[in-house]
Design brief:
Layout: H1 9-15, H2 32-35, H3 54-68, H4 72-84, H5 89-99, H6 101-108, H7 114-122, E1 126-128, E2 131-132, E3 145-148, H8 156-163, E4 174-177, E5 182-185, H9 200-207
Helix pairs in contact: 3-9, 4-5, 5-9, 6-7
Length: 209
């Protein structure tokens, strides 16, 4: 399966903001954005040209893709589905990204990063409504219950993520019961519930050309 295996800190630096790709490290002074907040590359410090038009739209799309850790093909497929659905395309796109199982596992506090959550999902550590699901792109619905498999509750990475959950806010549309290793999706998130720093309008403009 295709996946990005390069250094992730340079992705945050390229977008000029924290994308929280390395879990707890992103909340410390070791974060690359805190230490070197300029575009990566030999001439990164000197690249101060203003981005406009297509470049701005492309950067916004790349930011969204990297924030949710999905590849180009997956992202484009989600966009076309969002465009075909009723409602505002940009909102539909962000809601679909938030509903992904790997994202919900991360949002609920069961993983330190989305990449970590995706790997845990792939390895079968989670149950959705009592059934094991190992597909990271599986879309969670209102009322679904996500829980850590009983045999996986001693996994160090999951325990550490739950310990550090106070560093980041659990969204209101997710109800976490850390003691029972369970999280319930109260509702499908609305655009106002999504804290992702995205201008989805620019992504729609890019794909609509």
């Amino acid at each position: 399966m295709a996946r990005y295996i390069g250094p992730v800190c340079r992705l945050c630096r390229r977008e000029g903001m924290k994308l929280f790709l390395k879990g707890e490290r992103c909340h410390t002074e070791k974060c690359a954005v805190e230490k070197r907040n300029f575009v990566p590359g030999q001439h990164g410090k000197d690249r101060k040209a203003k981005i406009v038009g297509y470049g701005l739209q492309l950067r916004e799309k790349q930011k969204a893709r990297r924030y949710y850790q999905v590849l180009e093909g997956q992202f484009r497929s989600l966009f076309h589905k969002a465009d075909a659905a009723k409602g505002i395309t940009g909102n539909n796109l962000l809601v679909s990204l938030e509903r992904r199982l790997d994202n919900v596992a991360y949002r609920a506090g069961f993983a330190g990063s989305r990449a970590d959550a995706r790997q845990l999902v792939r390895h079968g550590h989670f149950l959705v409504n009592g059934k094991r699901v190992n597909i990271p792109s599986f879309l969670i619905s209102k009322g679904d219950v996500l829980e850590v498999h009983e045999k996986s509750r001693g996994v160090t990475r999951i325990a550490a993520a739950l310990e550090g959950v106070k560093r980041r806010e659990i969204p209101q549309w997710v109800e976490l019961d850390a003691g029972a290793f369970k999280a319930r999706v109260r509702d499908i998130p609305a655009r106002d519930d999504i804290t992702a720093p995205m201008q989805e309008r620019l992504v729609v403009e890019l794909y609509s050309k």
